[in-house]
Design goal:
This is ABC transporter permease. The chain is mainly alpha-helical. It is built from 13 helices and no strands. The relative contact order is 0.13.
């Protein structure tokens, strides 16, 4: 080893390792054309959804812009298609393309909010259970076991139904998005908590944690500054995969009629409303929202699968 290498500071060594890992991840990304294509497609779907008010022909949430005379117009490439309804209209005269893009915004925002809150709850409970152990660990993990023993969608349905019934009728539509987020969080935080708890249980016995305790470093600082960074890789991968699952759960709840209201349709609501017209000839009302939902979930899952492989040191 050269004197220059010996003179390297710990921060420089850490910087070299981070840069090396970033370059490895980037090379792994470039070697996966399917992942690159999925990333580009997902970016396109998200950007077009959030910029939709700038170019779509109508606001599907505004009843004043809907005209029943324009109901069930087929897509523009069919004989009876009309401009500007590129993908046709539904039974209320709502432009299907506008409804899909506005609905995608709702589904994406709910998915992001649900994953973010699930991360906060799961990481907090996992750190507490793994670091302190004892009664705290037992109570939190048994609560997680109970939730895991029930199918996720049933937990979400139960929570959504109970909260909606507890709200006044005037607030049910206004708070529909918040209820969906709460339902998804309560059914998905356990996975993060168990992952963090397992890692925290191992890290708390290591020398640097024991030394920090001897120096009377506060437990909160040890958990957030030392243990949490070592759990971020599996948590990040799980969050990416669960983002697609959160979107799918929201769509399922909305399809069952306990999600977003018809006046503020998400992709699941659009699929539910269009399902009645699938065999009546107006197939476009349900087919295009299903395609949008499928593209969102598939692209997110492909990126999550790549991250799981790229961040796994055993596969490099």
């Amino acid at each position: 080893m050269t004197p220059a290498a010996d003179a390297r500071t710990p921060s420089q060594e850490t910087g070299r390792r981070v840069k090396w890992r970033e370059s490895e991840i980037y090379r792994s990304f470039r070697r996966r054309p399917a992942t690159v294509a999925a990333s580009v497609l997902l970016l396109f779907l998200v950007v077009t959804a959030f910029l939709s008010p700038l170019y779509v022909p109508q606001n599907p949430y505004d009843p004043a812009q809907l005209d029943l005379l324009n109901a069930e117009i087929p897509p523009i490439w069919q004989a009876d298609g009309q401009w500007p309804f590129i993908l046709g209209t539904d039974s209320q005269g709502r432009d299907v393309l506008s409804a899909i893009l506005y609905g995608s915004r709702v589904s994406i925002v709910i998915g992001i909010a649900a994953v973010a809150l699930s991360l906060v709850v799961g990481i907090t409970f996992g750190l507490l259970a793994g670091f302190y152990g004892g009664v705290i660990d037992t109570l939190l993990m048994r609560l997680g076991d109970v939730l895991l023993s029930i199918p996720t969608i049933l937990v979400a349905i139960l929570v959504s139904s109970l909260v909606r019934q507890a709200l006044p009728a005037s607030l049910r539509d206004v708070g529909a998005a918040g209820v969906l987020v709460l339902a998804i969080v309560l059914s998905s935080w356990v996975q993060y908590a168990r992952t963090v708890r397992a890692q925290a249980s191992v890290e708390r016995e290591k020398e640097y944690v024991l030394a920090a305790r001897v120096l009377h470093v506060p437990g909160r600082r040890i958990m957030l500054g030392h243990i949490l960074p070592n759990t971020l890789t599996p948590i990040f991968v799980a969050a990416t995969l669960n983002f697609g699952m959160a979107i799918l759960t929201e769509a399922t709840l909305s399809f069952l009629g306990i999600g977003m209201p018809p006046g503020q349709p998400s992709l699941g609501t659009l699929i539910r409303l269009g399902n009645d017209y699938l065999f009546s000839g107006s197939w476009w009302i349900v087919v295009f929202p299903v395609m949008q939902l499928s593209l969102l979930v598939v692209t997110v899952n492909m990126i999550g699968d790549w991250l799981r492989d790229a961040l796994n040191p055993k596969l490099r």
